[in-house]
Protein backbone atom coordinates (compact mmCIF):
# COMPACT_ATOMS: atom_id res chain seq x y z
CA UNK A 1 0.00 0.00 0.00
CA UNK A 2 2.84 2.36 0.83
CA UNK A 3 4.48 1.67 -2.54
CA UNK A 4 1.21 2.30 -4.42
CA UNK A 5 0.65 5.58 -2.56
CA UNK A 6 4.21 6.70 -3.16
CA UNK A 7 4.20 5.85 -6.85
CA UNK A 8 0.62 6.70 -7.79
CA UNK A 9 -0.41 9.54 -5.47
CA UNK A 10 2.66 11.22 -4.06
CA UNK A 11 5.07 11.37 -6.99
CA UNK A 12 6.12 14.88 -8.02
CA UNK A 13 4.21 14.72 -11.30
CA UNK A 14 0.99 13.54 -9.62
CA UNK A 15 1.23 16.17 -6.89
CA UNK A 16 1.65 18.85 -9.54
CA UNK A 17 -1.17 17.42 -11.63
CA UNK A 18 -3.61 17.66 -8.70
CA UNK A 19 -2.68 21.24 -7.76
CA UNK A 20 -5.85 22.74 -9.36
CA UNK A 21 -7.97 20.25 -7.43
CA UNK A 22 -6.36 21.29 -4.15
CA UNK A 23 -6.80 24.99 -4.98
CA UNK A 24 -10.51 24.50 -5.69
CA UNK A 25 -11.04 22.57 -2.46
CA UNK A 26 -9.22 25.32 -0.54
CA UNK A 27 -11.55 27.93 -2.09
CA UNK A 28 -14.50 25.94 -0.81
CA UNK A 29 -12.87 25.63 2.62
CA UNK A 30 -12.30 29.39 2.90
CA UNK A 31 -15.91 30.20 1.96
CA UNK A 32 -17.39 27.93 4.61
CA UNK A 33 -16.12 29.68 7.79
CA UNK A 34 -16.66 33.03 6.12
CA UNK A 35 -20.34 32.19 5.57
CA UNK A 36 -20.68 30.80 9.10
CA UNK A 37 -19.11 33.91 10.61
CA UNK A 38 -21.47 36.14 8.66
CA UNK A 39 -24.45 34.26 10.06
CA UNK A 40 -23.03 34.05 13.61
CA UNK A 41 -22.56 30.26 13.66
CA UNK A 42 -19.76 28.45 15.47
CA UNK A 43 -17.07 27.07 13.16
CA UNK A 44 -15.42 23.70 13.84
CA UNK A 45 -12.12 24.07 11.98
CA UNK A 46 -10.96 20.54 12.76
CA UNK A 47 -14.07 19.15 11.05
CA UNK A 48 -13.59 21.47 8.07
CA UNK A 49 -9.95 20.43 7.68
CA UNK A 50 -10.89 16.75 7.95
CA UNK A 51 -13.50 17.21 5.22
CA UNK A 52 -10.97 19.10 3.08
CA UNK A 53 -8.47 16.25 3.25
CA UNK A 54 -11.18 13.66 2.74
CA UNK A 55 -12.51 15.45 -0.36
CA UNK A 56 -9.04 15.85 -1.86
CA UNK A 57 -8.16 12.19 -1.30
CA UNK A 58 -11.48 10.98 -2.73
CA UNK A 59 -11.04 13.08 -5.86
CA UNK A 60 -7.42 12.01 -6.29
CA UNK A 61 -8.06 8.29 -5.78
CA UNK A 62 -11.52 7.81 -7.27
CA UNK A 63 -11.76 10.76 -9.66
CA UNK A 64 -14.98 12.05 -8.17
CA UNK A 65 -16.33 13.62 -5.01
CA UNK A 66 -17.41 11.62 -1.98
CA UNK A 67 -20.97 12.95 -2.39
CA UNK A 68 -21.18 11.59 -5.96
CA UNK A 69 -21.24 7.98 -4.66
CA UNK A 70 -24.86 8.06 -3.52
UniProtKB/TrEMBL annotation:
InterPro entries: Cyt_P450_sf. SUPFAM superfamilies: Cytochrome P450. Its cofactor is heme. One of its GO terms (molecular function) is oxidoreductase activity, acting on paired donors, with incorporation or reduction of molecular oxygen. One of its GO terms (cellular component) is membrane. It comes from the Eukaryota. Keywords: Heme, Iron, Membrane, Metal-binding, Monooxygenase, Oxidoreductase. Belongs to the cytochrome P450 family. This is Ferulate-5-hydroxylase. The lineage of its organism: Eukaryota, Viridiplantae, Streptophyta, Embryophyta, Tracheophyta.
Amino acid sequence: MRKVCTLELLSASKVEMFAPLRREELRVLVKSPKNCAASGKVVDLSQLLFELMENIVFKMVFGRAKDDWT
